[in-house]
Amino acid sequence: MSLTCFAPFLFLSFILGCAARPFYPLPSKMSNQNRQPMQTSRPYNIAHRGSNGEIPEETAAAYMRAIEEGADFIETDILSSKDGVLICFHDVILDLTTDVANHKEFANRKRTYNVQGFNVTGFFSVDFTLKELKKLRVKQRYNFRDQQYNGKFSIITFEEFISIALDAPRVVGIYPEIKNPVLINQHVKWPNGKRFEDKFVETLRKYGYKGSYMSKDWLEKPIFIQSFAPTSLVYISNLTNSPKIFLIDDVTMPTQDTNQVCPEFTL
Ligand SMILES: *[C@@H]1O[C@H](CO)[C@@H](O)[C@H](O)[C@H]1NC(C)=O
Ligand SMILES: *[C@@H]1O[C@H](CO)[C@@H](O)[C@H](O)[C@H]1NC(C)=O
C-alpha cells in the first residue's frame, strides 16, 4: 500500500503500542456486533503482506497500518514452525527478511532442502520452534523501502493475524495463502496424521470463518483462501466452503505441488 499523510506522532505511538501489545490470550475480545460492514460496491482493496512499503512485511504493525489506511482485506502467507504452529511469513527461509544471521545460537541450523525442484540453502522456518522464531526480528526485504522499523517487530502466528483482523474497528477480511504445502508436510508432523491443510482449516473454523462468497457468515468474517498448489485447494474444498483462489504464476512456472505448468491443468 502506498504512503499517505498521517500525523507522525500518533502513528509512532500506534506502532509502539502494537509492539508491546500482548497478543495472547486469544481469541480476540472484540464483539463482532455493530461494526461497519465491508464495502462490496467497488473492487476490494487487498493489503498484500500488510503495508509493507512502510513497515516490514507480515508483521502486526504492517497489518494494523494497512487497516488504518483502509484495506478491505489483509493478505498473508502461511508457513509452519518446527513444532507445528502456523505462522505468517513469506519465504521458506528466514534469511532475507529477518536478523537470523545475527543469532550465533542458530548458526548451525543452516540447511539445504529441495523446494519444488530447486536446492535452496538457508535457515528454514520448519527447523525453528515458535519460541525460537519469536526471538527473531523482521526487516525490510528491499533497500529502497523505509528501514526505520527494521529489528522492531517479531514474526506473528496465523492466530495473531486473525485476531488483528477481528479486532479492527470495522469488518476486515483475511486473505491467507497456503504456502509451499509439500515442503511443510515433509518437514512438520502434526498429531493423528493431520496435514498442514487440516491444521489450516482447523484454525479458520476455530475463529468462525465459513460460508460461501457473500453469504451471511462470509460477510461477517470475509475470507479468500489462496494457493499455488491445486492439490491443497482440492483437499481443503472437502473441508470448507470458503471461497478459494488458485494462483497462477508466470505461465512457465510450475505449480507448488503437481509440478504442472499452465497449459497442463484444467480446472
Ligand atoms: C540438489 O542437490 C542434490 C544433492 O547435492 C543433487 O544431487 C541434485 O542434483 C541437486 N539438484 C539440483 C536441481 O540442483
Ligand atoms: C473428501 O472426503 C471424502 C470423505 O471423507 C474422502 O473419501 C475423499 O477422498 C476426500 N477427497 C479429497 C480430494 O480429499
TrEMBL record:
- Please give the residue ranges the record annotates as the region Disordered: 31-50
Report keywords, A-Z: Glycerol metabolism, Glycoprotein, Hydrolase, Signal
Question: Could you tell me which residue ranges the GP-PDE domain spans?
Answer: 43-267
User: What's a Pfam family in this record?
Assistant: GDPD
The biased composition feature labelled Polar residues covers 31-43
What highest taxon heads this organism's lineage?
Eukaryota
A Gene Ontology molecular function term of the record: glycerophosphodiester phosphodiesterase activity
Give the reaction(s) catalysed.
a sn-glycero-3-phosphodiester + H2O = an alcohol + sn-glycerol 3-phosphate + H(+)
One GO cellular component this record assigns the protein to is:
vacuole
What EC number(s) does this enzyme carry? 3.1.4.46
Query: Matching InterPro entries, A to Z?
Result: GP_PDE_dom, PLC-like_Pdiesterase_TIM-brl
Which SUPFAM superfamilies has this protein been placed in? PLC-like phosphodiesterases
Gene3D superfamilies tied to this protein: Phosphatidylinositol (PI) phosphodiesterase (3.20.20.190)
- Signal peptide interval: 1-20
Q: Tell me, what is an example of a GO biological process annotation in this record?
A: glycerol metabolic process
The record's comment on protein family reads: Belongs to the glycerophosphoryl diester phosphodiesterase family.
Its protein name is glycerophosphodiester phosphodiesterase
Protein species of origin: Gossypium arboreum
Lineage of the source organism?
A: Eukaryota, Viridiplantae, Streptophyta, Embryophyta, Tracheophyta
